[in-house]
Amino acid sequence: MPCYSIEGVIPVIDSSAYVHPTAVLIGDVIVGPDCYVGPAACLRGDFGRIVMHRGANVQDTCVVHGFPRQDTVIEENGHIGHGAVLHSCVIRRDALVGMNAVVMDEAEVGAASIVAACAFVPAGMKVPPRSLVAGMPAKVRRELSDDEIAWKLEGTRTYQDLTRRCQASMQEVEPLTAVETNRPSVKSVEVKSLIETRRGD
């Protein structure tokens, strides 16, 4: 994977983490145990430090960066959805940042909170624990239910399982030119989307 030092500061990746070979890590980046960093994610620790705590995930095409002397931190079980941008902010334990959301400088997403897809969390905003925030700019919409928090944790555990699956079997290959007979499916754990869960499917 593309890992770069700057001024002698080298990224750190725990041996139990999985970082996709197309992700880019630069400088003062610390990826903790059981973390997942997806394809084409960019973690640029060339100004401030970036820290991922145990079990956190940063999914494909996310950008994580920050101002000089400001850390960007994703605490344990933090869940950063596809295409999100984090800049000099703190994502507390068990929080989720939805797809294409932006969390700005010195904002703090409280423990077990959810930032909705495409939300813009402005600089300095303090999201209370167990809150749903949405909009541009983001506003607190309501408190999350126990079921919603449990659903989020289940989703994060699927990424922790994906970390193990990638370590065990991910490899670069040449594509097939035709679909084979009895084509297998990937053997991921079963997890339902929130809308599917609410329908009771």
TrEMBL record:
InterPro entries assigned to the protein according to its UniProt record, in alphabetical order: Transf_Hexapept/Carb_Anhydrase, Trimer_LpxA-like_sf
Name of this protein? Phenylacetic acid degradation protein PaaY
Q: Which domain of life is it from?
A: Bacteria
Gene3D superfamilies, alphabetized = Hexapeptide repeat proteins
Lineage, uppermost ranks = Bacteria, Pseudomonadati, Pseudomonadota, Betaproteobacteria, Burkholderiales
Annotated TM spans: none
